[in-house]
Amino acid sequence: MTISRSKNNTIATSTDRDIVFSSSDNNDVHKAIDDPFDKSSTTITNNVPWKDNNNRIIEAGRGGKITWFDGYWWWVGSQPAKMWNDGGDIYLYKSQSLGSNSWQFVRRIYEFPGNVSSSNCRIHKHPTTIQILVHCSSRKIVISDDGIDGEFKLHEMSDDPSGYKERGWKWGSGTVFQDDSDMYMAVSWCDKPDGSCMATTRRGLIYKLNSNWTDFDETDPIVSDFVWPHREAYDMFKKGNWYYLAASETQRWRQSRSWYKRSLTIKGLQDAKEKQMVMHLSNDENVLSMGTQFRTLIRAGSGKWLFGGSRHPDEDPQNFDPKHGRFIFVPVKFIRGVPHVFWKSKFNWDTYSYETPDHDPYQALDH
Q: How many helices (H) does the chain have, and how many strands (E)?
């Protein structure tokens, strides 16, 4: 699927037909690129590049996640890279309001050397040590003892305790999840018998970290271990009493379906049946997950959830047009525990009706 610009300045896919995601006022979408910075904005405009308070493209890609603490949403991520194991700088942004034009550049907090991954990063503030920790792929953590403005130093976790590395498996993409004072790490492992990851035999492992969140738990580090083929780009969260583990399909940079498991315990996720998130617009052969790869589900407020998806115009220009940006956020309603995702070209996440959700239409254009 190639993302291209349609006549009415909305997103289209160049296949046998173009799928056009439209809104009630296409001029809003066209003008969104020039939306001025507004630190109080709760408006999200999709299908355009998102810029920070300095009018620069937001560099929070490669699976960077968003976390709330100290009165701000913190978004940490890295520059695009064609290979996940390329080095890359870690950039930090903050927002009080989650609007797509509300993000303020804070600083570049760390520069990884070449061949060290800075993908799938997430930032937290430890409730006891008050350290700021950024967990990234490949068991890399950058830590500041002096808050957001302090010096971040690299800390490497110890060797994986599962034994899969010794069997020739590769530690893949993952995420961390805070549950009160505990921290967990969910990772997708893949077998590499011929040097390439085998999607059909991928495994999911959920680890518990130690009390400082700096290494694996000393006594019982592995909480769940299960086969989860064709799944990657994990995100983990809790809604009510239910733990969720969400993932995208293994499609490299291309758009893909979004899946999840849920359980009343973290250990129970290993036996939970996977289900597919429900998209409105529905998935079809041309458009999957709103033309994105799933990244995260964000609890923005009471009863207010957002689906975050990534596009990859830098890594895969054949399939994505940079005019449509790297990120989308769209509203989510949980119906009997199932995430239902609703396409909106432009909406106010704070005033949107999550109880009676609506979505913008699409138009199929035959050639």
A: 1, 27
